[in-house]
Fold this sequence. Notes:
This protein is mainly alpha-helical and about 500 residues long.
Amino acid sequence: LCVTDLFRAAAEAGPHHILKLYDPSGRVLNICPQLEANSEDSYYRLEVVASDFQSVLMPAELDDMEYRLHHLESKVIEDVGKTPDIICELKSQVESFRRKLESVEHLSWMGLFKDDGDQQVSPKPRTPQLSVQEERQQVRRKFLNMSSLQVTEEVREHLKSPIFDNWQWEEAEMLVLLQVMYTDLDFLTAFHIELEVLQNFLFEVYCHYNSIPFHNFQHCFCVTQMMYGLIWLTDLRSKLGRIDLLIMLTSALCHDLDHPGYNNVYQINAQTDLALRYNDISPLENHHCAVAFGILSKPECNILKNLTSEQYKHIRGGMIKCILATDMARHNEILNKFKVLQPVFNFTNKDHKEVLMKIMVKVSDISNEARPMAVAEPWLDCLLQEFFNQSDTEKLKGLPVTPFMDRDKVSKPSSQTNFIRFVLLPLFTELTKLFPCLEQHILEPVQRALEYYSDMERARKEEEEEEGTNKPLYRVGWCLKLGGVSLKTWKQTSPTLLTTVVP
């Protein structure tokens, strides 16, 4: 049992409650094993900051909106005899917004559901929690119902851009947008894919992503959407065959299937079944490939069933290479190979194309910092939560602790400045040399992200020097907040992360 769990038990708080710990002087403390013992004369104060996500209170304005909408619907039915489509759409949007407030955890950081003072408010009765299977079937029904609707040209164009905001879309809607990607690239016609089979395939892919902080279906969608955008931005449709485009898009879609939330280092050190099965060689990536082709082995999901054996062999081999390339242990090997080829790159050369396809999948996989900060920063918070979960488990099991995942040593800005400087920028720079048009779309945003996190890191160091102390790192939601940065300074740089809390 970890220290945080003990505090939760003491406060009778649920797993999703947000806690604050204060010392006798009112200073916020970092809940960690290094806490000094307190006494009757000098005791800690524990506070539950926000309500559990499963019993949150909805804003009164939302209830008022639903009442007015219901009243309007009743009046229209009296006059017309049926509910117009526009009202059905409004009802759907209101319900969608309610679900997002209840379930999108990054919104809860802003304290939307905090009670005012000591006022006691009884939560409204909620509908019974759906099982995972029921939730998936609900997503499937929504997906199929929406799949025949016409997606606007504005959305289609936005879907081709790196600034696309995934947080605005539900899972069923993302499945519809994935269907749009396959149809707009003309894969259905070129490879004789039946629409129903594509829909079954996309839904099965959705079902095989786990509900974990980062490597989930939303991440899968973001990586696939970035790949789709890069294909259009670089005009790869005129440079590569359609079969290679299918390989890249489907590899992006399947690249993290059934990810358990613990990386390859953990798998190997813990001697998990995956590490044993794949002899410590890219166990996760090999597993993602195996799950992908397990899905494709089902006739109702096999989007490749109408291809020749040579086409299938080509696609299978290409997908395996692209997905295995996402193992960061092979990053330098693949990047260095691309660096050598880039000055003399030839789109008709099979080996050149193979390396480019790997690079494109890699870029898409780690492209969050190329997105607007409002989209990218919540993803970093999700990633840090997954990292911290792993390091906590490593400590509990007595395994070597992965340094960049240790919640007691890593800060949010330092983790990003190093990753951007030594991984993202070298990779994005090389790709931009081949496709100069990408400079404004992915390279410049990453450079701005480096400046953003560098400024944040400098602010922490400067304040620590002024105070002559080395303060602990305070955790904010799923991320780390710099203990040395004042609340005023933090509000100026990151207005959505204002509360010092413990995940």
